[in-house]
Amino acid sequence: MSLWVDKYRPKTLDELSYHEGLTTRLRSLANSGDFPHLLVYGPSGAGKKTRISCVLRELFGKSVERLKIDQRVFLTPSKRKLDVNIVQSNFHIELTPSDVGNYDRVVIQDLLKEIAQTQQVDLSAKQRFKVVVINEADLLSRDAQAALRRTMEKYMSNLRIILCANSTSRLIAPIKSRCLLVRVAAPSLEEIQAVLQQVAKNVGFDLPPEASEKIAEESNGNLRKAMLVLETLKMQSKDLNSPLLTIPKPDWESYCHKVADLIMSEQTPAKVMEVRGKFYELLSHCIPPTVILKTVADRLVDKMDESLKADVMYWAAFYERRMRIGNKKIFHLEAWVVKVMSLYKVMCTSIY
Amino acid sequence: MFGHQQKNVQPAVDERTQPWVEKYRPKTIDDVAAQEHTVSVLRKALSSTNLPHMLFYGPPGTGKTSTILALARQLFGPDNFKSRVLELNASDERGISIVREKVKNFARQTPRAQAVASDGKTYPCPPYKIIILDEADSMTQDAQGALRRIMETYARITRFCLVCNYVTRIIEPLASRCSKFRFKPLDMSSTSTRLAQIALSEQVQVTNEVISALVSTSAGDLRRSITYLQSASRLSSSTDPPAPITLRDIQEIAGVVPDEVMNNFASSLGADSIPSIFSKLEKQDFDTIRQQVKSIMREGYSAAQVLSQLHDLIVQHPVLTARQRSACALAFGDADHALCDGADEELWVLQVALRVNKAIS
Ligand SMILES: Nc1ncnc2c1ncn2[C@@H]1O[C@H](COP(=O)(O)OP(=O)(O)OP(=O)(O)O)[C@@H](O)[C@H]1O
Ligand SMILES: Nc1ncnc2c1ncn2[C@@H]1O[C@H](COP(=O)(O)OP(=O)(O)OP(=O)(O)O)[C@@H](O)[C@H]1O
Ligand SMILES: [Mg+2]
Ligand SMILES: [Mg+2]
Q1: What is the pTM of this model?
Q2: Which one of B35, B125, B156, B354 has the fewest CB atoms closer than 10 angstroms to its CB?
Q3: Which UniProt keywords apply (chain A) (predicted)?
């Protein structure tokens, strides 16, 4: 049985709710015959992936949904073998660089050339080109991005690329220059509520407006999160009509809040040690370090005195950046905690 | 792996389905817009058929790849192009040994001139081969170093053309062996002339306002402005009757943050674009600013775009002192650098917002 997020995911452009203007634009591009390379970007859970699948469906028709998974072997320059699973239909192929690690350039290079040099001879195909969807494109290494450049131009008659990313700042300028940028904004509160209501209707239960409003507010514009929360509440058979309804937080989030509380409770080496333990725990559960840092920081500024808030965020940005460049995430998380503790302590003692 | 496919078919080019960037790629060097200096030097080289090693550098979409391909085509014509021109780009394997091998093989076959080509024209067909190393800035230092020797060994029968965005990433010994050509971001009038030509031959109605929006949003990158134009025209022709292309269409396609959003943001930082005598520049509370930043980031605008528009507002702000402007400038500089390092966009937009607010209150 699939989750609601998958089960009720729109499949065609017509089924998409919200951002009607964008939907119209995508439809006109898909029907024009000279579809460009796309770079689809926007915050998490805004519906990028969903929109991309709908565009593919518009381009190629229903058979694009028939997916198969292929095991492929690639050879690195040092002759190491790389096994990669590749999801594809007859018309498109999907790649996620994080599946390939440091060798994303090799895979991109080989795969794209192979596709580029073959031509669609399936006469029933609606387009002459194949589409390569690259998820998490902002995680592509610089080398892999460079490898895309000329390929995107040279083989344009056989190949279109759709890049999907949370942000555009990690993509090199020549790549952005070769794509049409498509921004997918997070849905508004009302739009999220409308989707939730639609899901409730499809499942067949009554969702009180107060409950859907609460869920939407807690979701921070992330539709996936909102839908997951709704399903969880329903599974736990919570009374959706109750005015006391609380939205469950994921464990890692409560854990981050605990870290913030620890930082404010006492500013001693012992607490730093305790916080480190919590960080390790979070990291070992694959919570991205940036998410940890931002969640703790958000909680801290909610509780701290106005005079400290700007400083806490200043150092959050400072150490998050170091974390990106550096290797040991934990060092930078901890350095930030120590910084915040010392700021907080200075402020507390200066009051008395 | 692809059941319905057949290998190695040369793509047949269909004009109708070709994106305009490719359709309007310059075919001859005289067709290259702007870059007058480069073109005039190359035109001389074309008539004397003597070519130095060359290094083309400049930002994306300014005509580097187009120019060298056009020049090569004009030198050798369609028949000899394949045997005389070797293009290696970042998507090719370019380790030292591979480059040496390829160049060696390629350069070994001695060129033979052929006067009249199959299309009935005569081409100069000078007695050397051209090796284009496109996107050379992504080659490793070692590979570049090895290239030096290769260039010397085969100097008699090959000419190299290195193409890159950042000339500083090419090692000095290599750069100094080449005549350098800088490709400038396209100036306003060349861009608008080119766009107007394309619009005319594609029969798209564009106003001057739209053209100038295309020019300003693409910042000298002609490829980008052509893509915007094509996508806007698809959108407009998707309705019946076609809706005219508007300024806002272009801004939306280019990811520009609407003015009202930016003005709102600036005024929450105390930097109203039209300061009245009543609005004191006062320090806003943290939560207001954080909310503003969160809501802008939720819209998905890229941080670089937001910061560059905020920067414009601050620079043009009528009443700020020099000291205040400098403090803001430092914040913008730090943030740009951080974003290049891949730092979190929201954290850095917030940091700039807070620092700007502090500086001007
Ligand atoms: N337009 C829409 N109408 C209704 N439901 C939608 C729409 N867009 C997305 N959804 C729902 O939201 C869920 C999340 O969307 P999606 O996976 O496309 O997000 P995303 O932007 O790719 O997120 P991420 O960046 O985290 O990968 C989908 O599973 C789908 O059920
Ligand atoms: N100077 C120019 N004159 C005419 N057309 C141009 C010019 N510059 C760019 N274009 C247009 O933009 C497209 C891309 O140009 P080109 O491939 O030459 O850019 P580039 O400088 O090599 O960029 P990159 O650094 O991204 O590789 C061309 O197909 C053409 O349509
Ligand atoms: Mg996704
Ligand atoms: Mg180029």
Answers
A1: 0.89
A2: B156
A3: Hydrolase
